[in-house]
Design goal:
Elements (H helix, E strand, L loop, with lengths): L2 H20 L1 H4 L3 H23 L5 H5 L4 H10 L4 H5 L13 H29 L8 H4 L5 H15 L5 H20 L3
Helix pairs in contact: 1-10, 3-5, 7-9, 7-10
Protein name: Biliverdin-producing heme oxygenase
GO molecular function, one term: heme oxygenase (decyclizing) activity
InterPro entries: Haem_Oase-like, Haem_Oase-like_multi-hlx
Length: 188
């Protein structure tokens, strides 16, 4: 079993748990509900990106995948100014990221959610009329490059795989799902 297959298998319960708890239909039913959802995502990504960037095995690779700027752009399009965005609550506590391999495990969750974001972007467009320029840049992620970005991430993950690191990578992915669930699914 490859590391990607192991991650998919061992994080499936956590993935299903967050997907069920998110109640996405409710959270994209109105512009205000959608803005609240983006605010929660912003709080997660801002805190996570700050912590993970310090330990990322390849900083340029990591930074090319950061989403805080997309979320800030969406929130600005939905009426929040830069000062209000910066003051949004951030996710605490974060999962421990004791080594570069732990960042890769955590990135597995974040990059996987980017894949799912393209489906959400279509629903947001259909229900609310938002696109990449008017409040849905985050869920559009990498746009046409989303599949290629996932593939390149998978290659980096597989290159880092070893008997010494795989358990840490999987544990970090599981911890990230837990933190993300608790942060996104709690009522602000």
């Amino acid at each position: 079993m490859t590391l990607l297959e192991r991650l998919r298998t061992e994080t499936r319960p956590a993935h299903d748990r967050i997907e069920k708890a998110m109640d996405l239909d409710r959270r994209i039913a109105s512009p205000d509900a959608y803005k609240s959802l983006l605010m929660r995502f912003y709080g997660f990504h801002r805190a996570w990106e700050g912590a993970a960037s310090r330990r990322a095995p390849d900083r340029a690779f990591f930074q090319s995948r950061c989403k805080t700027g997309l979320l800030a752009r969406d929130l600005n399009a939905l009426g929040l100014d830069a000062d209000a965005i910066i003051q949004l609550p951030q996710c605490h506590p974060l999962m421990p990221l004791p080594a570069p391999e732990a960042v890769l495990g955590s990135m597995y969750v974040v990059e996987g959610s980017t894949l799912g974001g393209s489906v959400i972007a279509k629903e947001v467009g259909r229900k609310l009329g938002f696109d990449g320029a008017s409040g849905c840049a985050y869920f559009r992620g990498y746009g046409r490059d989303t599949a290629a970005m996932w593939k390149s991430f998978g290659a980096v993950l597989l290159a880092a795989s070893s008997p010494e690191t795989d358990d840490l990578i999987v544990a970090s992915a599981q911890d990230t799902f837990t933190v993300m669930h608790d942060w996104l699914c709690e009522t602000p």
